[in-house]
Amino acid sequence: MASSVRAGRRLRRALRPGGELEAARLPRELRARLEAVLRSKKAGEGEDPRPVVPFRLLRELHEHLREQGSSVFLHELLEGSEIYLPEVVRPPRNPELVARLERIKVQLANEEYSRITRNVSCQAARRDGTLADFGRQVRSVKAVVISIFNFIVTVAAAFTCTYVGSQYIFSEMAARVLAAVIVASVVGLAELYIMVRAMEGELGEL
């Protein structure tokens, strides 16, 4: 937080002989403190050499000028001055805290790596390897073949039974064949519906 200013050239010259504050009849203590601050130069390498004046001292100067009814105003004296913002010195980090943060980072990285590679581990490869996939495929093909065979047998049996049984109803062969085709078609559609539903269930489990 700013609490001082870098004194500009006008403020530094105001206390010199013939300066603007010469006729302001400053108290001896206030003048001495201002002169001491303006003479000090605490500058390191590459730092601004202008002296630093605290706000508190400028506030006292402003109150005195206002009480004296001086024609010199503080904002005029501060022309060319800049607010001084001291460099913030960051405290050193706790080595134990740094080490703990590093351990947490490593732990999180290991957990993320384990989560990513969980599905490609050796055990998973052995469990879900080519033999298991081949076994599932064989079972699926076997189930499809059995379903198709049952469908053909069921339709053929329905056609045969209807054709043979319809001889007691129809004397003409064409009527018997038509009745057998109709019954076989109905049975085939029903069987096909059941087979499709069963296959959908098996695909949903895979």
Automatic annotation (TrEMBL):
Cellular component aspect of the GO annotation: COPI-coated vesicle membrane; endoplasmic reticulum membrane; endoplasmic reticulum-Golgi intermediate compartment membrane; lysosome; vacuolar proton-transporting V-type ATPase complex
One GO term in the molecular function aspect is:
oxysterol binding
Q: Which UniProt keywords apply?
A: Endoplasmic reticulum, Membrane, Transmembrane, Transmembrane helix
Localized where?
Endoplasmic reticulum membrane
Q: Name one Pfam family in it.
A: Vma12
Q: Tell me the membrane topology, using the record's own terms.
A: Multi-pass membrane protein
**What InterPro entries does the record tag this protein with?**
ATPase_Vma12
**Bilayer-crossing regions:** 143-165, 177-196
A biological process (GO) annotation for this entry? vacuolar proton-transporting V-type ATPase complex assembly
Q: Which PANTHER family match?
A: TRANSMEMBRANE PROTEIN 199
> What protein am I looking at?
Transmembrane protein 199
Instruction: Tell me the lineage of the source organism.
Output: Eukaryota, Metazoa, Chordata, Craniata, Vertebrata
